[in-house]
């Protein structure tokens, strides 16, 4: 007769892990009914003010200080944030939450370069995104995993949208459609549906709906598709820009809140800008590879909370 010895500590850990997964799955199922359909263009719609999508986008770009690529220069920012527990279980690689908590971000809009150095409890993750390539390093070691590269390219492009707002849409929009206005908490919002080609990451096409405050033409929210990675196809998320700061005529968002809208409805991520400065004179060479130059490595200037 053969006796089986059971390690009750391991057995208990397995049961707890299964229970956590079961709860997460159950919550997901319950929330599926709360998913919100992505807006679609209305054939033949003409807004009463007579302006089409291109005109509204142009006014929004101007209200934010003009096209950032035409302006030139560079942007150095620092961010910190928190992920919701459920989204990290549903999308572990996209969130990469053990690495992506705090970040130093460097962007050269006119050169199509976005570099971001994330840090978290697991270590440091660096993503270098250019118009036609992406490189990813974990603690200085380059990753060639296709899922890592695809998901990182997508999130890098999304963060460029979140930082540059209407300028990013203007760079990639192949088509713009005006949608009907909506009113939220007494705020009238113009809506413009933009087809982006290319889309986010390795997607040839994505869509973004811009919600623009009718009073001052500031971008209030973006609602976007995420077709650039296998686990996010069919999903949509929105990000609301809760606060802005004017930097020598350039209006940039400094507080963000992200929600998943489909296939389920959950809160995903909240983050804020803790440091920001413009025009260090950076070039693409300053952020090439795993090591940044001294000029690029200097932390972004701390923002005073207002």
Estimate the helix proportion, in percent.
Answer: 25-40%
Count of distinct structural domains: 1
SSE pattern: HHHEHHEEEEEHHEEEEEEEH
What do we call the CATH homologous superfamily?
Answer: Lipoprotein localisation LolA/LolB/LppX
Q: What topology, given as strand order, has the largest sheet?
A: 6-5-4-3-2-1-13-12-11-10-9-8-7
Largest sheet, if any? 13 strands, antiparallel
Q: How would you sum up this structure, described in words?
A:
With 306 residues, this protein is α+β, with helices and mostly antiparallel strands. The protein has a single domain (9-297), classed as outer membrane lipoprotein receptor (LolB), chain A (Clam). 26% of the residues lie in helices and 38% in strands. The protein is built from eight helices and 13 strands. The protein has helices at residues 8-31, 53-63, 68-71, 85-90, 92-95, 146-164, 166-172, 294-297; strands at 75-83, 102-108, 113-120, 123-130, 133-138, 141-143, 173-184, 187-196, 206-213, 219-225, 236-247, 250-262, 266-278. It has a 13-stranded antiparallel beta sheet with strand order 6-5-4-3-2-1-13-12-11-10-9-8-7. Helix 2 (53-63) crosses helix 7 (166-172). Mean pLDDT is 90; it is low at 1-33.
């Amino acid at each position: 007769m053969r006796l089986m010895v059971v390690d009750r500590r391991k057995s208990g850990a397995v049961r707890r892990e299964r229970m956590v997964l079961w709860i997460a799955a159950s919550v997901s199922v319950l929330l599926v009914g709360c998913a919100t359909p992505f807006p679609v263009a209305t054939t033949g719609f003409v807004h009463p003010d007579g302006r089409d999508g291109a005109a509204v986008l142009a006014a929004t770009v101007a209200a934010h200080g003009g096209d950032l690529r035409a302006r030139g220069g560079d942007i150095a920012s620092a961010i910190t944030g928190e992920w919701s527990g459920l989204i990290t279980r549903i999308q572990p690689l996209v969130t990469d939450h053990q690495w992506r908590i705090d970040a130093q971000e460097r962007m050269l809009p006119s050169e199509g370069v976005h570099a971001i150095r994330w840090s978290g409890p697991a270590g440091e993750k660096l993503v270098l995104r250019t118009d036609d390539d992406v490189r990813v390093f974990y603690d200085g070691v380059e990753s060639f995993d296709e899922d890592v590269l695809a998901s990182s390219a997508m999130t890098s492009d999304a963060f460029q949208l979140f930082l540059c707002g209407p300028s990013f849409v203007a760079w990639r929009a192949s088509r713009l459609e005006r949608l009907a206005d909506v009113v939220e908490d007494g705020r009238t919002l113009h809506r413009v549906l933009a087809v982006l080609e290319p889309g986010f990451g390795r997607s040839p096409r994505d869509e973004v709906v811009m919600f623009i405050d009718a009073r001052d033409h500031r971008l209030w929210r973006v609602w976007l598709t995420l077709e650039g990675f296998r686990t996010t196809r069919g999903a949509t998320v929105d990000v609301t820009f809760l606060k802005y700061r004017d930097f020598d005529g350039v209006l940039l968002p400094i507080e963000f809140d992200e929600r998943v809208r489909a296939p389920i409805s959950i809160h995903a991520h909240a983050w804020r800008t803790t440091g920001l400065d413009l025009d260090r004179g950076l070039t693409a060479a300053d952020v090439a590879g795993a090591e940044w130059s001294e000029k690029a490595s200097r932390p972004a200037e701390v923002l005073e909370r207002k």
